[in-house]
Amino acid sequence: MQHLDLQVIEQVLSWARNGETVWLCTVLATYGSSPRAPGSLLAVRGDGRHVGSLSGGCVEEDFLARLQGGEFDTPITVLRYGEGGIDGTGIALPCGGILDVLVERLAPEAETLVHLEVLLATLQGQRPLARRVDLASGARHFVEDDGIGPQVIHDTERSAVQIRLAPVARLIIAGISPVSSFCAQFAQGLGFEVIVCDPREEMLENFVVQGVEVRPELPSRYIAAGGCHAATAIVALTHDPRIDDLAMIEAVRTSAFYIGVMGSLRTSGKRAERLRRSGGLSDDDIARIHMPIGLDLGSKTPAEIALSVMADILRVQRGKARDEL
Questions:
Q1: Mode of pairing for the β-strands spanning 170-174 and 193-197
Q2: Could you list the residue ranges that cross the membrane (predicted)?
Q3: What is the pTM (predicted TM-score) of this model?
Q4: Do 11 and 151 belong to one domain?
Q5: H or E segment at 251?
Q6: Are 221 and 300 within one domain?
């Protein structure tokens, strides 16, 4: 899932803790062109304040207007946008697609708070679960999930939907460099939660990217303390072995789906030898590390290198082999 969806649930939980009723909207299915994928979230308070998105704006505008008009006062509503409009109102998607949306009215009760806390922990990668929502009663609970299959499953026989809660994609940037800033910006645009670790005060002073969590500590320490899950990518971008090598030694002990370190073919070969000799890494450990990092785009500038890094991360995330590109 995207970092935006994590922010939605964090905000919903905050509103609910403050006694606010919240309408949580989830994309159940899309047909044809659609701005956001199944599982995407929008949350709205009774006063119209909202976070997240379902489309390019037209769906949100219609939903907010109808909510202000007193609609959606039941626990569950399922809407369809597109295909000539919704419920005869004539609201259609400009892209010509179709969007099914689940609307849950969440009252600020103890049961709601517990459900949202479990949901937040799941998106943070603490446990693989799926939400199961009864479309008739609004009852909801969690079930164990293996992470395989479509994002949303519609059980028509039991009139229920099951929504997979994959951890939010996370990028850990080990060390600050000119490439790090561009990497952080590109990753944010791709929906990643971005965490930058560097113990050097002089580098921290010059790193300014809004929305990025910056931790003044060795990346290896953060990684070893459990900062990764299966939807995490770890990249080392400093050319400083004291930061990059230690980060790689800890990274290969995690379930991160992508591990990479910047450097030329020559320096990468030397690093591999150091990691075997001093870090005790096996050949299998070394094979997990992308070095040189990124796709071979002939990149020269920091922005071009960062683009090649994020392109390679996206390739691995989507399960594409290099020869398929």
A1: parallel
A2: none
A3: 0.75
A4: yes
A5: helix 241-251
A6: yes
